[in-house]
Design a protein that fits this description.
Blueprint (H helix, E strand, L loop, with lengths): L1 H4 L12 H7 L14 H9 L34 H17 L16
Length: 114
């Protein structure tokens, strides 16, 4: 990575097809393709102190919950069983749903204000 990151513009794309890359960046001089890693390979690399380029270890998690803001103290050991903690979390989520404070986005989104 050190070879190319200081010598030109770096654009990350989600394809390794040269024809698609050319349509997105017609003036590009090169395309660097990294292998697709499985989650277990990322864990092994981390345990072995292997550094991967930024974004290489990224995995898309469908149905991820964002801005949950559930109190962390609810996860601490306090004598409650896991079933009790799960029930409390379920009631908390149901309350948010009832208050119309949960939004679901079915489609992938692009943000242009970063």
């Amino acid at each position: 990575m050190d070879t190319y990151k200081k010598r030109g513009a770096l654009n990350r794309i989600s394809t390794d097809a040269l024809s698609q890359a050319r349509r997105l960046y017609p003036d590009a001089l090169a395309i660097v393709v990294f292998p697709h890693y499985q989650p277990v390979e990322i864990v092994v690399a981390a345990r072995n102190g292997i550094h991967l380029p930024p974004g290489i270890s990224r995995h898309i998690i469908k149905g991820r919950a964002m801005r949950l803001h559930y109190p962390l103290e609810e996860f601490r050991e306090n004598g409650e069983s896991l079933d009790e903690k799960n029930e409390k979390l379920k009631r908390w989520i149901q309350g948010r749903m009832k208050e119309k404070r949960v939004r679901y986005y079915a489609e992938p989104s692009y943000l242009f204000d970063e």
